[in-house]
Amino acid sequence: MRDVFQTDLDALREQLAEMGVLAARAMRDATTAVLTSDGELAERVMAADAELDVARDRCDETVQRLLALQAPVAGDLRLVMTAVYCADKIERMGDLAAHVADTARIRHPECAVPAELTASFTELGTIAAGMADRLVELIGRPGHGGFAELDDTDRAVDSRHAAVMAAVTDPDWPHGIPSATSLALLARYYERFADQAVSVAKRLDFVVTGVIAA
Amino acid sequence: MRDVFQTDLDALREQLAEMGVLAARAMRDATTAVLTSDGELAERVMAADAELDVARDRCDETVQRLLALQAPVAGDLRLVMTAVYCADKIERMGDLAAHVADTARIRHPECAVPAELTASFTELGTIAAGMADRLVELIGRPGHGGFAELDDTDRAVDSRHAAVMAAVTDPDWPHGIPSATSLALLARYYERFADQAVSVAKRLDFVVTGVIAA
């Protein structure tokens, strides 16, 4: 019985890690699509989002089977409960990457990001996808401290988000209102992607410590 | 043992319903604050959001106790798992209401919503808060069909959201870019609030049917 349980727990970890890989890839590709106005790549990112939905459902099924058959306790129970939460957050990260890709698609063939904001969005994409990469590592080899680390990284995202908002609401913004509103939303997708990553890291710490950080 | 279990399950339902009440009130008050530029009310909504965070943590604790002590199966297990998911979504609804309130606060003493969009945002607030009210009823007396109903209501939110986006990206928009970007984000908070309500209703159906709607 115990061996089956351990196998299911390992499967759960692998499923979550695989979701993290998909989210990181989606964000990286979506950022490329939005920066280079690559409509085909944008479509591919949006289509691939269905994989994350399926992966989330598979995680939920594994969790239900584990709970129904094994009645885990303490640290194992925390891991199982955390998996439900994290799978949902990572699935949402995929949605947000798809929103980034959709912005590329909507504004195609025009480029959604004007030259003066290329650096900001390149950084947002690199940092956000890197946070998803880091989650994959944390899921595979959990240890306390992921939350503090990603919370710190999140500040770098917030500062770029603030810089974009300052640029698009500047009275001298030269690219018109549709561009400004689209970029405000675009920056928010990155900010929310990073927020989800932080909340996953917080829950992963909880698996180890049994305490949810404030 | 069974009685303790039923008491815990009832407590979980009550905790979730209470969260729904808080989310509905937050959205109603936040909408009033943003439409009347009531800075004090906005501050109160933002401060009250901490109550929802506490309520969510209490739900999680009840769930953990239930799982650790009672090993529920089938429908009961689905309810317990669903509670984790729903508590998180309703807590997020509170965050979004707080974002609406924050928009009122940031633009105070100016009114964030110009006269020509008052009707749209009044409707968004009424429909969104009504969706939270409906969740409270569905949590208290679950029956299959809540998802289809709220998914239908969500279309009314989406159409108002689209109308606001069309207005603020119109070349003749007279209120400037900061107002346009702020209103685009504001409309998105309502849209996301409604999305969370739909996903809660979907999971509540699942408690009854054992099947997650596509």
UniProtKB/TrEMBL annotation, chains A, B:
Subcellular location field: Cytoplasm
Gene3D superfamilies for this protein: Phosphate transport system protein phou homolog 2, domain 2 (1.20.58.220)
Cross-referenced SUPFAM superfamilies: PhoU-like (SSF109755)
Domain PhoU: 16-103, 122-203
Family that this chain belongs to: Belongs to the PhoU family.
PANTHER family linked: PHOSPHATE-SPECIFIC TRANSPORT SYSTEM ACCESSORY PROTEIN PHOU (PTHR42930)
The protein's name: Phosphate-specific transport system accessory protein PhoU
Organism: Actinophytocola xinjiangensis
